[in-house]
Specification:
By secondary structure, this protein is an alpha+beta fold. It has three helices and six strands. The longest helix has 14 residues, at 35-48. The strands form two sheets. The chain has a three-stranded antiparallel β-sheet with strand order 2-1-3, covered by helices on one side. Strands 5-4-6 form a three-stranded antiparallel β-sheet.
Length: 139
């Protein structure tokens, strides 16, 4: 019989009802991993954020939270409110990646190259958020 695997999921929430993350924040997802590893990671993440009552992490069986695809999306924007891409620019999308950690590694590489450009911005997003961004950035 196969061992049940677990994810550690969470992040910073908008309020202490823990029903919605802070606007613009994507849930952190680690795993899948065996239960013992998941519990150790949960303890570690929770200990790091013990002073912030808005941060919470959960351990969930993989069956309860199927894997999401992760992307890195962004580009050059017309202003620092990052609401509209620069004229003639299209949304740049990298991925999909199987987990947030892979997307984070790509995000770090891309943002290291654009750190001196105040109008460039890239975010780590799920497939659902990417669909929203594509609609928002249509010409």
């Amino acid at each position: 019989m196969a061992e049940t695997l677990f994810n550690v999921i969470g992040g910073e929430y908008a309020d202490t009802s823990f029903t919605a993350l802070v606007e613009g924040v994507v849930a952190e997802r680690y795993g899948p991993m065996p239960r013992v590893e998941a519990m150790a990671l949960w303890r570690s993440l929770s200990a790091k954020s013990v002073d912030n009552c808005m941060v919470r992490y959960y351990v969930r069986a993989v069956e309860e939270h199927p894997a999401e695809e992760w992307f890195v999306a962004g580009g050059e924007y017309s202003a620092t409110d990052f609401s509209h891409l620069a004229k003639g620019r299209e949304l740049e999308v990298f991925g999909p990646y199987a987990d947030r950690a892979q997307a984070l590694a790509v995000w770090r590489a891309i943002t290291a190259k654009t750190v001196d450009d105040a109008l460039c911005r890239y975010d780590i997003v799920t497939g659902d958020r990417l669909r929203q961004l594509r609609v928002q950035t249509l010409p």
